[in-house]
Amino acid sequence: MTQVTEHGGGVWSIKVPIPDNPLGHTLVHVLDTGRGPVLIDTGWDDPEAWDTLVAGLTAIGVGINGIHGVVITHHHPDHHGLSGQVRESSGAWVAMHAADTEIVRRTRQSEPGTWLAYLAAKLTAVGAPEDHIAPLRTARATGRMRTLPGLRAALPDREIVPGELLDLAGRRLRAVWTPGHTPGHVCLHLEEDHPANLPGRGRLFSGDHLLPGISPHIGLYEDPDDATATDPLGDYLDSLERIGRLGVAEVLPAHQHAFPDAARRVQELLDHHEERLTGLLALLATPLTPWQLAERMEWNRPWEQIPHGSRNIAVSEAEAHVRRLVKLGRAEAMTGSDPVMYIAV
Ligand SMILES: [Zn+2]
Ligand SMILES: [Zn+2]
């Protein structure tokens, strides 16, 4: 029973475990509507997660076959993993922002080999050493690799349109587009009085965009078919400010726990990224490749202890910060450098 929390006003959360992951669990939210309960996110595609979700629903008097719809904050497997199984069991619709639906479509169609080739080329371009790239080439050549998560992810059948109210009987739930963590991340603003009369404007289902104790990963959007120099960190910081201005009474995030005072947390995260950008600028007093920059940045453990796959994520995060500095005119790529090197201006 401890996995279910009642938040009042027809809202519950269920702690759905994520296997082998330090995050621990996804908070799947249940929103009662006039046409049946709607889920916000579903959890990781795993038997234990499924059983926990079903048991949690049972505890609040809902059968899995009674789910009316599924609203997904973003395409990551700890949020969207069980959506297909929920839809099969209930006939529920599944809604997602178009930009993330595009990623689901692309991932389902992609061949692992194409992704490995893209990754190897990209890592070469940012200055990764040969001993880091070689295993990717070997995996591609031998056709041996782990299955990519997301190959079986459900294709959504409804689109979440930013700024609009979702079509939910008896509830006011408005989609707020918050790109950054993913290009199609959305927060959902429940524009109703807080059930315990906390001051502010309603409640916010914040997905991974705004978490009480974690700064979400902001990397590049990594689309092998799109060479546009996107600025995910810039998107994220803009999205944070947009959320801060909503003045919500309480945030219901997809990990950790609910919390009040969104504006304070937004400011902490803005400060955190500003500090990080300033630190990077100091490092870029001498020209560095994104890889060298990642090696010198502060992570939750020393670079030598960061495993192979996590180094790819780290270098993607380093690149996202460099992109931001370039967009701000505070750093630039050195002409003719290959792999590319950046320097503060
Ligand atoms: Zn995520
Ligand atoms: Zn997540």
Question: Which terms would index this structure?
Answer:
345 residues, alpha/beta, Metallo-beta-lactamase, Chain A, 3 domains, 7-stranded mixed β-sheet, 4-stranded mixed β-sheet, 10 helices, 13 strands, 37% helix, globular, binds zinc ion
Computed over alpha carbons, the radius of gyration is: 21 Å
Q: Which regions have little confidence, pLDDT < 50, spanning 5+ residues?
A: none
- The span between the termini is 57 Å
H/E series = EEEEHEHHEHHHEEEEHEHHHEE
Describe this structure in words.
With 345 residues, the chain is an alpha/beta fold. The chain has 3 domains: 4-103 and 150-266, Metallo-beta-lactamase, Chain A, CATH 3.60.15.10; 110-142; 280-344, no CATH class. The protein is built from 10 helices and 13 strands. The protein binds zinc ion (2 copies).
Task: Write a brief structural summary.
The chain has 345 residues and is an alpha/beta fold. It folds into 3 domains: 4-103 and 150-266, Metallo-beta-lactamase, Chain A (4-Layer Sandwich); 110-142; 280-344, no CATH class.
